[in-house]
Queue: 2 jobs
Job 1
Amino acid sequence: MTTTDTTTPAAEAPPRGGEIVCEDVVRIFSADGIEVQALQGLNLHVAAGDLVAIVGASGSGKSTLLTILSGLDTPTAGKASVAGTDLLTMRGRARVNYQRHTVGFVWQQTSRNLLPYLTALENVCLPMSLAGTASVPHAEHLLRLLGVEHCRDRKPTEMSGGEQQRVAIAVAVANSPKVLLADEPTGELDEATSVEVLETMRAVNAELGVTVLIVTHDPTVSEHVRRTVQIRDGRTSTEVLRRRETDEHGQEQHIAEEFAVLDKVGRMQLPHDFVDALELKQRVRLALEPDHVGVWRDTTDDPKPTDQGEAAPSGASNDGSDDANRAEPSERPEPEGTR
Ligand SMILES: Nc1ncnc2c1ncn2[C@@H]1O[C@H](COP(=O)(O)OP(=O)(O)OP(=O)(O)O)[C@@H](O)[C@H]1O
């Protein structure tokens, strides 16, 4: 990952609010009398037209989030809406309409996305027929856009895994949803085919303007999206925003900046590698500077060197003043907001 400093990170950030809004979303599962908090106050805002990857360790809550956004499950608490539809109060007919028109899905298992006894064209026409808007020319247009027009009259068993996933994307966007949700869409594919499928997702995002959210374990997915959101223990923890810039030599640079997610009351999680690198534990020292917040390891209880080079008693300062523990600006580490 190429990283570089930048003076205007906020200028590139997507606007707050928008197509997908999750605020303090909680999902508790009860099984055999044991409660599992899969989502523990998750916050996520995705703007209309954005292309976002959600990454995280196994069990961090990615699939739970996607199942809620797809309308197949309801949060225990919090606020969640997609394209203005409130996912907590949605019932019956509204839920069917939501799944048919507002969101489209692509699942990991290629076999789950397509009906095996229908051709690619028939698979794409099916959701339109259910909505009463079947159009062969529109289905053909989508197959062409996704580069699988040659599969028009083939059944899934006559297509490669990558072709099946690209047809699945055409099926998912057949009813012009506002949001396309994909759960590990490259999970069963080799690297080269994964890249093709991800590029297809980009094309759908760019050409049709559909907002795309991809849940994945695959770290290479991050290189194909503008924004990667990390979920940790049921909460969004950090984000990486990517963009391309041309430097003064005319060379294109890929810029990746890491951000921490700040909730409404100001809580944030520091990335694991920051915590490990500075051996941060239990408590950190903070300082508000004009344009950033400084975070330092708590050295209050460290032995202090004396003039003779011996350790002073814990907590004692060199000159007896409280300021002795504060590093002078020249001694301070660089701000950690960018890497
Ligand atoms: N229906 C359920 N009943 C009980 N616990 C559940 C249920 N679904 C998920 N969980 C638990 O919730 C937590 C989050 O699960 P989730 O499937 O969302 O994680 P994930 O990040 O998608 O993991 P993976 O990458 O392995 O699919 C896990 O501890 C899981 O065991």
Note: The chain has nine helices and 15 strands.
Job 2
Amino acid sequence: MSKAVPLAAAPAAGASLFAHSRLLDSVAAFTHHRDIDALDHSLALSLAELSSAQSVSLVKRAVGGTHVDSIVQCALDEQGHYQLRAIEPHAAEPALERVNRCMEQLEVHTEMIHGMHRLTVPMLRDGRAIGALELDSCMPPATSRPLVDGFARIYSNYTGLLQESERDKLTGLYNRRSLERQLQRLLQQHESTQPPVAEPEPSRPGPSSAGAPQVWLAILDIDHFKHINDTYGHIYGDEVILLLAQQMRACFRRSDVLFRFGGEEFVILFAATDEATVHAVLERFRQRVAEYAFPQVGLVTVSIGYAHVGVHDYPASVLDRADKALYFAKNNGRNSTYGYESLRASGAVGQTMAPGAIDLF
Ligand SMILES: Nc1nc2c(ncn2[C@@H]2O[C@H](COP(=O)(O)OP(=O)(O)OP(=O)(O)O)[C@@H](O)[C@H]2O)c(=O)[nH]1
């Protein structure tokens, strides 16, 4: 039997339904994104619009780390329109103290600033803060807090799922599936500074115009890993993989993108101005590994092959070139680093795969 709804309740219910559907629209819009940068922008804008805030900042810690590695802010401009911008964490140092405290203490922070209410809410996952949302608004914190809390929880859950799908379970590095997206992202970042590359050899690094950074891909493979597994067992083999991933994190820059590509193979994507720098960076890492005493196993070495990434390169063809250089290292004593372009110039390796023959993942 249907229940009569008092007439007087209808307008309030209508208004609340409208507010709920706006909220759901926003959540649907930002969870539509698979790309975390786009998701961050969408979240900051949705929260600013729904709360009519003066500004919303999304501050994020590096995956698995405690330092802030990105800040996205959505703030009203003089014309009353929301504008999104990314802020370099080092440029926001003093303001970050408050946010860092909130993330360390896992506590919500409120204060009055220039006649506005400032609300800082940590975003939690598995009992630790992955970042924080900060809102400057005319509304008192008690009014805006449920909305900010809700967005923080949805963001944390959703990015947790996204990260699980793009990370290797053992090491926490990116997995093979994420290479194409990360490569595109890095190329877009550096596209404007990359000199035009002559066809039909997209792999050849352009002239180093005013030291503009270019993108490079390196493949790193543990030498005689089967022997390590056979001698010490798979658990020690896994431990070697884990420790190597830790060394990679410690040795490469935060902006370098690290992958466990499968088994005992790793990939590094990074920007550098010239081949000599690339070689020196990779050699430094190879030597560091060769000097490290792995528990029980002792000394372990790695072989490295690398190649330049052209703006219009397919991931599979870059991988093929770097793999040729790696293969050369494996066949020439291991525990060494080789670049495809130099090997090609000296005639030590042949042509890479034809554009039609590539496997596009
Ligand atoms: N412990 C462990 N072993 C793995 C994992 N993935 C692959 N392997 C093993 O890694 C070994 C790789 O062996 P190969 O491809 O012959 O290479 P290698 O022994 O390192 O020899 P080179 O690369 O030629 O120096 C195989 O025995 C795989 O079973 C993993 O996640 N954990």
Note: DSSP finds ten helices and eleven strands in the chain.
